[in-house]
Amino acid sequence: MTQPWLSNIAAERGVLDRSSTAARVADLLREQIITGLLVPGTRLPEEELGKVAKVSRNTLREAFRLLVQERLLVHEFNRGVFVRTLTAGDVADIYRARRMLECEGLRSAATASPAALARLDAAVTMGEEAAAADLWPRVGTADLRFHQAVTGLAGSPRLDEMVYRLLAELRLAFHTMSSPRDFHAPYLKRNRTIVEMVRGGDSGAAERELLDYLDTAETQLIRAYEAQTPDA
């Protein structure tokens, strides 16, 4: 049986037929990571993936190389290419970068475009609807979209690209939490609080809320990693 993430790649191969670029293949694989379908430790079957995507081996290997550079994949000699497993140190560094990027977004909220504000609200709504349907992995995806939208308030395409790749890496850390519901539910409510603060013009309060939120989430994730590797 074809795995769900491979089916998603196959469904997008029409786009690949038009572009046939390694960057586009990398985009599709990255999206499977962000949506939680590709999990840490998954081996990427080169032959099968090449067939469903209808791309050459060289194109596929270039896509792999791009994602290895982004710390999303790892190449193991004589074994193949795998989705990377993060460390507690990786998590700490991701959150260090997130504070810089997302706080800058909130500081720019007063001059953000209506479209940027709408994306912020839409991401929270997506999460709330997924929670109501008891689709907690999808809530995790919505949470990443929300934080991407927070940085998007700055109106910088370069920051957007940076945070998108950073949040793809963060999704790999989410898999260490035993209960997606227990982990994501409190933050879904806090996302809505941040939106209301931004809409109310209090970006300072929104930034303080975000910083406390990030501190709490980082602590939870690092403790989960340490529990898995007590001797590390």
Q: What's the shape?
A: globular
Radius of gyration, taken over Cα atoms and rounded to an integer in Å? 18 Å
CATH topology of the largest domain: Four Helix Bundle (Hemerythrin (Met), subunit A)
CATH arch. level architecture of the largest domain: Up-down Bundle
Largest sheet properties: 2 strands, antiparallel
Top CATH class of the largest domain: Mainly Alpha
Low-confidence stretches: none
**Strands ordered across the widest β-sheet:** 1-2
Structural class: mainly alpha
- End-to-end gap: 37 Å
Count of discrete domains: 2
CATH superfamily of the largest domain: GntR ligand-binding domain-like
Report the portion of residues in β strands.
under 5%
How many distinct helices?
A: 11
Helix content: over 70%
User: What's the total number of strands?
Assistant: 2
Considering the chains and any ligands shown, give keywords for the structure:
single chain; 232 residues; mainly alpha; Arc Repressor Mutant, subunit A; Four Helix Bundle (Hemerythrin (Met), subunit A); two-stranded antiparallel sheet; 11 helices; 3% strand; globular
Task: Give your account of this protein's structure.
This protein is mainly alpha-helical. It has two domains: 4-83, Orthogonal Bundle (Arc Repressor Mutant, subunit A), CATH 1.10.10.10; 88-228, Up-down Bundle (Four Helix Bundle (Hemerythrin (Met), subunit A)), CATH 1.20.120. The protein has eleven helices and two strands, in the order αααααββαααααα. Strands 1-2 form a two-stranded antiparallel sheet. A hairpin with a 3-residue loop joins strand 1 and strand 2 (80-83). It is globular, with a radius of gyration of 18 Å. The mean pLDDT is 92.
